């Protein structure tokens, strides 16, 4: 028999039915009402795109950056490929003279955290900001040259968000001028520490500083944990990997315990607080508000990242929805070439539009809000340098709430997009499964999303009480540029305002949408203040409401920033950009009204929208979906996410979805042999035991 | 140095802080207001529990059923362990004389689909129901003895829900009395077929039957695809595994293509339709409604399974929330033994209660609805046997919508519970990550959840139109036992009804809650009928509304079945069960009002609830959460899910969460050697290259 059984399995070369995915995407692109490239350049700048393309050209072909095996890797293979990439980027940076920008781009495009992520993200920054010159020489300089590899060990097995509850102790021994690091209980084990499992030689350890019996609370120490020679854990250290996670498995999150581990005085990071050698006198850190600025920066960056997460999810699911055909929508049946009737692309179904297009709109919303947060961050930094702290509280509170709201939006959107891809969304080849799993920690780190909303709410309540005290009178200095105080005051002046829409299309006026979000946010704050201050409810009793007011506030900011950019961005408001302005305005209305519809009860219960207006909201959402539908593919194209970045069979620019699915299936290791591990011990005996009178021939029975 | 570096890593033996997890769970259990064991027996029956315990005792210790390595396994190890379990259950069944019930229990407890799942779930049932006696002898008998292993190949790469769109052809060749199976295009490749990738020797193939050029649409064929001797694919077959998935990776979902593959006439499953040998005359299948009964049965089973999914998620997250302590709620600070103040268990925070307790309530709701669906299924089967089809349409439509609604509730709840576990929810040791991934296909198979709602909605619209025609007059025969027709008629009689609650606690009356759900469901149906029939909207234009009316209808059923059982179940309504009745009634109110709050806008926009009543709904949800709070742990305990089943560090019955986390981390393969793959090539060179002047000693710097 000449037949070779086709192992490793190769697919026969078969054609695609017309219309092909490429045909369908070309058709979509021909309907663009705006200049896609111009919008791309507006969002990224030509300079960044040039840089991106330059880096992309290098890493796309580099084995250290290959994504080919990403979806088939076991845990240890993932960690290994992470190491490879970490080492390779250092070499490439040298070779191509990449600066921090290019490295950031490469890391962004590779799109998977690696064991060194926390070395760069937390270890080095902490050593930069919280050390003496001596400590910079001892720790920072070798860290920058990768002579030592570090991590940041704060979270403990029993203690996450509540940093003040940490148990690890660092007891000062004045006689030897050392600290005794110790883990007194199981729950005190450092846990979840990225890069600690199998990589780090050093750790920044947050431990309670105890001097002469007095507990000064958590402080940072820089300590060696593994031998530089052979990577063995040092004596007194228990260290390892915390095991498999829902995602993020290329990173070796680790645990760490100390058994009366002695470290020298210099291990205590003395850039802020200090311990006087010998006497053990404790010198408090200067009470600086500057660290809040850093938090704003980190969170603004997360929101900028949310834009990419949303854009990636939208790109994959919308392109695939334009390619995937299912049933014939009889009212809207299409023909194609010789075929009289072809199945309808699922993107033509209103349910699919309802599921996907608001996510596309939210990607753009997060672009504008991310940009605005960066502007506020920089403005605030300038102000603080001049000793003015007027902006800080507002910027910090909003950045907390926006981090919480937008990362939750993103994780939900990724999963919604995955599900909207139907069965194939469940294949890892969709590019959405691992993405969801890897993205999720964004909802936990830099402040748990639920805990964060309390910070935002606390500020909103405080501001409202201040506004109440001044009776909504003339603004104080602090309130002058304060968007929060401003809408709360507006509410106080017109506490029974109503939506002024007289007919459905009125709802497409930005002013009208903004007014609704402002009123609903302020009303929520006023209600909670009343519950606390007048009805004597406890903080715990109103936690659910607090989360709602934080969200309402941040939703207003998202809508506000979107419309504000459309109105006042110099480019967008120029006549040369009117094609882009027009489609973005429709998108902004969709974003606002869809979000309003999702929380419609809040807009009615406060008395702002009438029941008729609620029906209009629903109606206008459908009208706007219909308006955006033909622009959906051009709008995801404008995000210009390279195929290398997406690494998705379904989201490819060229629409060759089915070809890509089969090519990726050919690479499945199980297909490289006739039988797999387990056949000989389990399947074969079963079959053979059955045919007691001898196997039948391999006929087709 | 005596220090051995502690590799493989073992944790030091450290105590837990007081109060320990066990202390906290004991305290919770001491607060039970009802007899937990009695509730357990009510739900499962003593008989089933005895069976469960008997099977559990066997498989807990059996290597073939071990879950020890589940969270560390690579794809091929997962498949291999699946084979092992598949073979082992056959042996155990023989050894312990297990019947189908015991096997089902074993499979339920093992809680992971395996390569043989579709052999039992689809291959054998199809051969039982759609074959001639000759085919039973040829295919079914060897299948029952595992002499051949099968799968069910329907879905294609380009065709899922739309079965009529399948492309694979089976062309009858009258001269040889054979069929020519062929895959004409890439999109016609069979795809997603469970057990096909590396296991099946045979497949039921759905292919378009073509005779003398006439296409009779998809029909089933049973064909051999691999050699029984050595498992090689037969000539003309391309077969393999479709690659890694988001979950379900112990199953070898596969692909299959035919290159003019000839099969004998007997391959055509002739239990229903027939093809006359030689002439090729096609004999239509008898037009039976019985197959709808089967669908109802399958879906009722899925809903019964939803109860376990919800109970599992609730058990893990609620037990952990009782053990996990975070911050001190100052208004509610606790002391413990010698400790003056200890951190507050997160279950005491209202936000956490709001996230978790409604999920607990929904687990009980699905128990009662699953039970009711089974009753209706059996009643309907009896009726159909008597030639009466009055019940069928209603039961079928409701089962479609309920499958859609409850499986969506379940996947969302699993993920909500995972997130509510904070950082540790992200560890696979939580037991919630893989669980979510593996459970997800429930939303797609047996009818995609979105597509299904159209079936339910179509029936609701039809029933409403019928009711309209009879002017809400006397019921027809068909409507007599028809809960749907009954509430639609009620609406027609009182189209402007209002909620009669006069004060907040009125909302805890079952009648009041039920009336609200009925009105809101009927109002939605009436609106959509008006849009289609009076405003001439297309089906596509109202898809979003259709999904809403299906959900509204099924939410009503869930609430109805819960309260109906409380009122009329002989045990529950007896005085001996008043402790249980009381807590379940509170739970039913919470379930109803929380669901109402989530979709509050729909209850207001229809004019049924006033704004004041909406505030009462929110308020009562908080009141009910507070009432359920002390019963939360006893209520999850009543589901009596064994630790073996949960396989979760966080959800253990004994509350030893942190001990379990560290024990599972010790088993992580990465911790079994000092360095991992990649160290020598990536990390070591970096470190050594840095220290050009020689490594520093392993001091602590």
Automatic annotation (TrEMBL), chains A, B:
<keyword id="KW-0443">Lipid metabolism</keyword>
<feature type="domain" description="Acyl-CoA oxidase/dehydrogenase middle">
    <location>
        <begin position="151"/>
        <end position="259"/>
    </location>
</feature>
<dbReference type="InterPro" id="IPR012258">
    <property type="entry name" value="Acyl-CoA_oxidase"/>
</dbReference>
<dbReference type="GO" id="GO:0071949">
    <property type="term" value="F:FAD binding"/>
</dbReference>
<dbReference type="Pfam" id="PF22924">
    <property type="entry name" value="ACOX_C_alpha1"/>
</dbReference>
<dbReference type="InterPro" id="IPR029320">
    <property type="entry name" value="Acyl-CoA_ox_N"/>
</dbReference>
<dbReference type="GO" id="GO:0005777">
    <property type="term" value="C:peroxisome"/>
</dbReference>
<dbReference type="GO" id="GO:0055088">
    <property type="term" value="P:lipid homeostasis"/>
</dbReference>
<feature type="domain" description="Acyl-coenzyme A oxidase N-terminal">
    <location>
        <begin position="35"/>
        <end position="149"/>
    </location>
</feature>
<keyword id="KW-0276">Fatty acid metabolism</keyword>
<dbReference type="GO" id="GO:0003997">
    <property type="term" value="F:acyl-CoA oxidase activity"/>
</dbReference>
<dbReference type="GO" id="GO:0033540">
    <property type="term" value="P:fatty acid beta-oxidation using acyl-CoA oxidase"/>
</dbReference>
<dbReference type="InterPro" id="IPR046373">
    <property type="entry name" value="Acyl-CoA_Oxase/DH_mid-dom_sf"/>
</dbReference>
<dbReference type="Pfam" id="PF02770">
    <property type="entry name" value="Acyl-CoA_dh_M"/>
</dbReference>
<feature type="binding site">
    <location>
        <position position="155"/>
    </location>
    <ligand>
        <name>FAD</name>
    </ligand>
</feature>
<dbReference type="InterPro" id="IPR037069">
    <property type="entry name" value="AcylCoA_DH/ox_N_sf"/>
</dbReference>
<protein>
    <recommendedName>
        <fullName>Acyl-coenzyme A oxidase</fullName>
    </recommendedName>
</protein>
<dbReference type="GO" id="GO:0005504">
    <property type="term" value="F:fatty acid binding"/>
</dbReference>
<dbReference type="InterPro" id="IPR009100">
    <property type="entry name" value="AcylCoA_DH/oxidase_NM_dom_sf"/>
</dbReference>
<keyword id="KW-0576">Peroxisome</keyword>
<dbReference type="InterPro" id="IPR002655">
    <property type="entry name" value="Acyl-CoA_oxidase_C"/>
</dbReference>
<dbReference type="Pfam" id="PF14749">
    <property type="entry name" value="Acyl-CoA_ox_N"/>
</dbReference>
<feature type="active site" description="Proton acceptor">
    <location>
        <position position="446"/>
    </location>
</feature>
<keyword id="KW-0285">Flavoprotein</keyword>
<feature type="domain" description="Acyl-CoA oxidase C-alpha1">
    <location>
        <begin position="292"/>
        <end position="461"/>
    </location>
</feature>
<dbReference type="Pfam" id="PF01756">
    <property type="entry name" value="ACOX"/>
</dbReference>
<dbReference type="InterPro" id="IPR006091">
    <property type="entry name" value="Acyl-CoA_Oxase/DH_mid-dom"/>
</dbReference>
<keyword id="KW-0274">FAD</keyword>
<dbReference type="InterPro" id="IPR055060">
    <property type="entry name" value="ACOX_C_alpha1"/>
</dbReference>
<comment type="pathway">
    <text>Lipid metabolism; peroxisomal fatty acid beta-oxidation.</text>
</comment>
<comment type="similarity">
    <text>Belongs to the acyl-CoA oxidase family.</text>
</comment>
<keyword id="KW-0560">Oxidoreductase</keyword>
<dbReference type="InterPro" id="IPR036250">
    <property type="entry name" value="AcylCo_DH-like_C"/>
</dbReference>
<feature type="binding site">
    <location>
        <position position="194"/>
    </location>
    <ligand>
        <name>FAD</name>
    </ligand>
</feature>
<feature type="domain" description="Acyl-CoA oxidase C-terminal">
    <location>
        <begin position="510"/>
        <end position="687"/>
    </location>
</feature>
């Amino acid at each position: 028999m000449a037949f070779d059984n086709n192992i490793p399995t190769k697919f026969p070369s078969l054609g695609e039915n017309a219309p092909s995915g490429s045909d369908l995407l070309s058709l979509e692109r021909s309907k663009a009402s705006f200049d896609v490239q111009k919008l791309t350049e507006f969002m990224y700048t030509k300079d960044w795109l040039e840089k991106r393309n330059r880096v992309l050209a290098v890493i796309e072909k580099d084995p250290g950056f290959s994504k080919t095996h990403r979806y088939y890797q076991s845990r240890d293979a993932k960690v290994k490929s992470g190491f490879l990439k970490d080492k390779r980027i250092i070499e490439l940076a040298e070779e191509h003279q990449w600066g921090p920008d290019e490295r950031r781009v490469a890391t962004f495009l590779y799109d998977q955290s690696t064991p060194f992520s926390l070395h760069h993200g937390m270890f080095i920054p902490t050593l930069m900001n919280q050390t003496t010159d001596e400590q910079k020489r001892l720790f920072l300089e070798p860290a920058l040259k990768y002579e030592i590899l570090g991590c940041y060990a704060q979270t403990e097995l029993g203690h996450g968000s509540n940093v003040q509850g940490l148990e690890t102790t660092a007891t000062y021994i004045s006689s030897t001028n050392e600290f005794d690091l110790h883990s007194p209980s199981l729950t005190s084990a450092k846990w979840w520490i990225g890069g600690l499992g199998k990589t780090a030689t050093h750790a920044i350890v947050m431990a309670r500083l105890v001097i002469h019996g007095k507990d000064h609370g958590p402080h940072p120490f820089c300590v060696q944990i593994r031998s530089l020679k052979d990577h063995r854990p040092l004596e007194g250290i228990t260290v390892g990997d915390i095991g498999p996670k829902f995602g993020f498995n290329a990173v070796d999150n680790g645990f760490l315990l100390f058994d009366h581990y002695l470290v020298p005085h210099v291990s205590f990071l003395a850039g802020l607080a200090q311990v006087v050698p010998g006497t053990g006198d404790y010198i408090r850190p200067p009470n600086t508000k500057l660290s809040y600025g850093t938090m704003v920066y980190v969170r603004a960056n997360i929101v900028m990242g949310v834009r990419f997460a949303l854009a990636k999810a939208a790109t994959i699911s919308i392109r695939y929805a334009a390619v995937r055909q299912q049933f014939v929508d009889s009212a809207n049946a299409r023909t194609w070439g010789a075929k009289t009737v072809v199945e309808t692309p699922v993107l033509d179904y209103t349910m699919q539009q309802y599921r996907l297009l608001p996510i596309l709109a939210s990607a753009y919303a997060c672009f504008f809000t991310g940009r605005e947060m960066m502007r506020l961050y920089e403005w605030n930094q300038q102000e603080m340098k001049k000793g003015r702290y007027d902006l800080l509280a507002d910027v910090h509170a909003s950045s907390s709430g926006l981090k919480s709201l937008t990362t939750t939006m993103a994780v939900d959107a990724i999963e919604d997009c995955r599900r909207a891809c139907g069965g194939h969304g469940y294949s890892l080849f969709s590019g959405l499964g691992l993405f969801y799993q890897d993205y999720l920690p964004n909802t936990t780190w830099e402040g748990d999303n639920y805990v964060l909303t309390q910070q935002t709410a606390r500020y909103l309540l405080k501001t409202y009480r201040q506004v109440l005290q001044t009776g909504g009178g003339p603004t104080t200095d602090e309130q002058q540029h304060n968007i929060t105080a401003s809408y709360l005051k507006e509410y106080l002046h017109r506490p029974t305002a109503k939506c002024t829409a007289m007919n459905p299309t009125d709802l497409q006026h930005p002013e009208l949408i903004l007014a609704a979000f402002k009123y609903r946010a302020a009303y929520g704050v006023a209600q909670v203040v009343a519950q606390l201050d007048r009805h004597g409810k406890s903080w715990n009793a109103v936690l659910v409401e607090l989360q709602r007011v934080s969200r309402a506030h941040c939703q207003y900011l998202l809508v506000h920033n979107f419309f504000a950019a459309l109105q006042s961005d110099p480019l967008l408001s120029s006549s040369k950009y009117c094609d882009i302005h027009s489609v973005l305005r429709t998108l902004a209305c969709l974003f606002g009204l869809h979000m309003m519809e999702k929380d419609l009860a809040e807009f009615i219960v406060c008395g702002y929208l009438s029941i008729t207006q609620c029906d209009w909201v629903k109606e206008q959402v459908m009208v706007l979906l219909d308006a955006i539908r033909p622009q959906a593919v051009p709008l995801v194209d404008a995000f210009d996410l390279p195929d290398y970045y997406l690494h998705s069979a379904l989201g490819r620019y060229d629409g060759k979805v089915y070809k890509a699915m089969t090519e990726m299936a050919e690479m499945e290791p199980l297909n490289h042999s006739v039988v797999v591990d387990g056949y000989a011990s389990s399947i074969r005996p079963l079959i053979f035991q059955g045919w007691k009178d001898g196997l039948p021939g391999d006929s087709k029975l």
